[in-house]
Write a structure and sequence with these properties.
14 helices, alpha/beta, D-Maltodextrin-Binding Protein, domain 2, five-stranded mixed β-sheet
Length: about 350
């Protein structure tokens, strides 16, 4: 009798302990592996500050049920113009890509890239994400599960030998462009936009086939372009939009408990982090330029407003051209983007 009682007690105690363990540590389904890519080097913040910690957190929060394999510019999955296509095809499960490459892939989203609209990554990212949530971007992301959209801080004009102190200084310069919107701005001002992946910028600056680059402090620091660049015009001239997309079928195939974790780690919660990350990423390139003694030309708010006014015809023309790409009312979309950026700027300040 005592032996039976002890066994019953042991069984009950073990069952209670197992139940407690299951409550404390939810049981997840069989292991899932997700492939996640971006187009910049492995030391860049996209991998170092976002993807690697994201992968670790997802694995931890699913008790090891989800593993994430990371790919960057050094891999076969790291081509800048293939990020969204790889996700759509299912060869990559999650990718971070640039909205403007390939050209015209996400035309409605390009309204956030209009000159002198975005100053801060936090406001730009929240505004772009809000446009998506409102359905204002139409059907351009219908092939994907969208995990987040974001922008960088207002970008600069970096040059090798010609300082840009006024808009007229841009005439004749060959400048690497990150997007169709920036290309339209440069052409309107008499410059020649050149489309190149980040990996090709340094070589072309060195050979003299580029006079400069329109980009962030972050990128010129990451590719060591400050070794060649001498002037940096901080006009907060533009912002570029980015996407973090997931293969919809892969997302749908995930167990419910895994989707709950992934949903909590993405969307609003993820987009809110990019302002702080860009502060960190930009500081590296800025501090490097200062250490090299490069000249930083800061455009004040009054001059920036004048430059924006000069570009109004170009902005209107660009927006109207989006109708041919399926954007039904681009002027209204841009007006809404302005409202949202202003709203989130107020929260930033």
């Amino acid at each position: 009798m005592t032996l039976k009682m002890n066994r019953r007690t042991l069984i009950k105690t073990g069952a209670a302990g197992l139940a407690t363990a299951m409550i404390a540590k939810p049981a997840f389904a069989a292991e899932v592996t997700l492939k996640m890519s971006n187009y910049l080097p492995p030391k860049h913040g996209f991998t170092a500050d976002f993807m690697a910690p994201f992968a670790a957190e997802l694995e931890e929060r699913t008790n090891g049920a989800v593993k994430v394999e990371l790919y960057d510019a050094t891999s076969a999955f790291g081509k800048i113009d293939r990020q969204a296509d790889q996700v759509k095809a299912g060869v990559i499960d999650i990718a971070l890509g640039l909205n403007g490459i390939p050209r015209d892939r996400f035309p409605a989203s390009s309204v956030i890239e209009m000159p002198f609209l975005v100053e801060y990554a936090d406001a730009g990212s929240r505004a772009l994400w809000e446009l998506y949530k409102e359905g204002a971007l139409g059907s351009e992301y219908d092939d994907f599960k969208v995990l987040g959209l974001f922008t960088h801080h207002g970008g600069l004009i970096h040059t090798v030998s010609t300082p840009v102190r006024k808009l007229e200084d841009l005439k004749g310069l060959r400048l690497r462009t990150p997007s169709p919107a920036v290309s339209a701005m440069l052409e309107y001002l008499g410059a020649s936009p050149v489309g190149l992946p980040p990996s090709a910028i340094y070589e072309n600056l060195q050979k003299g086939t580029l006079d400069g680059v329109v980009t962030t402090w972050d990128l010129v620091g990451a590719i060591k372009a400050n070794e060649l660049l001498k002037y940096h015009t901080d006009a907060k001239a533009y912002a570029t939009g980015f996407h973090i997309l997931m293969n919809q079928a892969k997302y749908d195939s995930l167990p419910d408990d895994v989707r709950v974790v992934l949903d909590d780690m993405t969307g609003d919660n993820l987009v809110a982090k990019f302002g702080g990350w860009w502060d960190k990423w930009e500081s590296r390139g800025l501090n490097d330029a200062k250490a090299r003694g490069n000249e930083i030309i800061t455009i004040d708010d009054a001059t920036r407003a004048e430059w924006a006014k000069t570009l109004e015809p170009m902005i209107t023309s660009y927006l109207l051209s989006l109708k041919d790409l399926g954007v039904s009312d681009p002027l209204a979309l841009y007006a809404r983007a302005q409202e949202l950026v202003t709203k989130f700027n107020g929260m930033h300040n």
